[in-house]
């Protein structure tokens, strides 16, 4: 049986999905992200685990796509930097997977992979253009425009989390201040919770959301602030690239009910020349597997294109 692999490398877990050429799931595995020894050691373990997974499933790998939490040089396997993984900077991936050299390899930013997956088999099916926003520890983003991933000149397109929305000192994971991520990522939300609650601050955003839904005014205010910052970022993207659909994914997408009014107020206030009610806000359907589902979809799409004599520049055709 021939199979495609989608590998999503997160800061905590690696998720590995095998599918057949009809995109039916064969098997799924997850394991802790190897963090010692840099990318060389990490991919040695990932390669070993993937080969074992394929063998146990009776599958031969025709292709794989790897989604990484960082910047990828467009059209190559070169990873520029993964800020949250120490030592993951300026390396090519194919030499690190020598036992898989016969499989067609694609490398993609994780948010771009998530966006492709939502178009392929998720909330954005049938949408030719949309912005994908991953709400997790930070805020990632991907642009899907005119039927394909839009990466930009340097592979950085769609970084919604790093749009400046405030002149204040609130820190962002990139080292800057006052960005969308400073307020709408889990790290920023919990920082604000500690500022307001002190020792009584919740340990995670789920507990903060529970308090908000039970009527805690402080918790509600924190999520409204997060929604307002996210809404300003969405408005900026809508104004620049003229999309009408936004897909929210990641763990914090489950708190959309606490942020949506603030998001929509800011979109209405900051967009130009459109009816803001026409901006559609959807919750992604691929859940915690968004990255590996999107990566598997990319692997399958690239394999089909190679068979048709086309390769590169992943699109939906």
Descriptive notes:
This protein is α/β, with parallel strands linked by helices and 317 residues long. It folds into two domains: 133 residues, ATPase, nucleotide binding domain (Nucleotidyltransferase, domain 5); 161 residues, 2-Layer Sandwich (Nucleotidyltransferase, domain 5), CATH 3.30.420.40. The strands form three sheets. A five-stranded mixed β-sheet has the order 3-2-1-4-8. A five-stranded mixed β-sheet has the order 11-10-9-12-13. Strands 5-6-7 form a three-stranded antiparallel β-sheet, with no helix packed on it. The model has no long low-confidence stretch (mean pLDDT 94).
What labels describe this entry?
317 residues; alpha/beta; 2 domains; 13 strands; 23% strand
Lateral strand order in the biggest sheet:
3-2-1-4-8
Order of helices and strands: EEEHEEEEEHEEEHHHHEHEH
State the CATH topology of the largest domain. Nucleotidyltransferase, domain 5
Alpha-carbon Rg, integer: 20 Å
Distance between the termini: 25 Å
Q: What do we call the CATH homologous superfamily of the largest domain?
A: ATPase, nucleotide binding domain
Helix content: 25-40%
CATH class of the largest domain: Alpha Beta
- What portion of residues belong to β-strands? 15-25%
Tally of individual domains: 2
For the report, how would you describe the main beta sheet?
5 strands, mixed
According to DSSP, the number of beta strands is 13
The parts where pLDDT drops under 50 for at least 5 residues are none
């Amino acid at each position: 049986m021939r199979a495609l692999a989608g590998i999503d490398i997160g800061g905590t877990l690696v998720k590995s999905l095998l599918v057949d050429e009809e995109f039916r799931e064969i098997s799924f595995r997850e394991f802790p992200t190897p963090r010692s020894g840099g990318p060389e050691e990490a991919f040695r373990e990932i390669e070993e685990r993937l080969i074992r997974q394929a063998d146990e499933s009776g599958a031969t790998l025709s292709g794989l796509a790897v989604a990484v939490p960082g910047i990828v040089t467009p059209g190559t396997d070169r990873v520029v930097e993964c800020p949250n993984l120490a030592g993951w900077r300026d390396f090519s991936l194919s030499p690190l997977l020598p036992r898989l050299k016969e499989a067609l390899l694609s490398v993609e930013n994780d948010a771009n992979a998530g966006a492709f997956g939502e178009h392929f088999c998720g909330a954005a099916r049938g949408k030719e253009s949309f912005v994908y926003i991953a709400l997790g520890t930070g805020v990632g983003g991907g642009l899907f425009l005119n039927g394909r991933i839009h990466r930009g000149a340097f592979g950085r397109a769609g970084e919604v989390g790093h749009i400046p929305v405030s002149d204040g000192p609130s820190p962002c994971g990139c080292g800057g201040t006052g960005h969308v991520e400073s307020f709408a990522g889990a790290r920023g939300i919990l920082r604000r919770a500690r500022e307001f609650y002190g020792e009584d601050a919740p340990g995670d955003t789920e507990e903060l959301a529970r308090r908000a839904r039970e009527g805690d005014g402080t918790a509600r205010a924190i999520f409204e602030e997060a929604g307002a910052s996210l809404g300003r970022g969405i408005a900026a993207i809508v104004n620049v690239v003229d999309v009408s659909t936004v897909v929210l994914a990641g763990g914090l997408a489950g708190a959309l009910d606490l942020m949506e009014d603030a998001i929509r107020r800011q979109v209405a206030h900051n967009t130009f020349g459109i009816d803001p009610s026409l901006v559609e806000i959807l919750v992604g359907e691929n859940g915690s597997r968004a990255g590996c589902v999107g990566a598997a979809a990319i692997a399958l799409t690239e394999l089909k294109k190679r068979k048709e004599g086309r390769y590169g520049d992943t699109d939906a055709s």
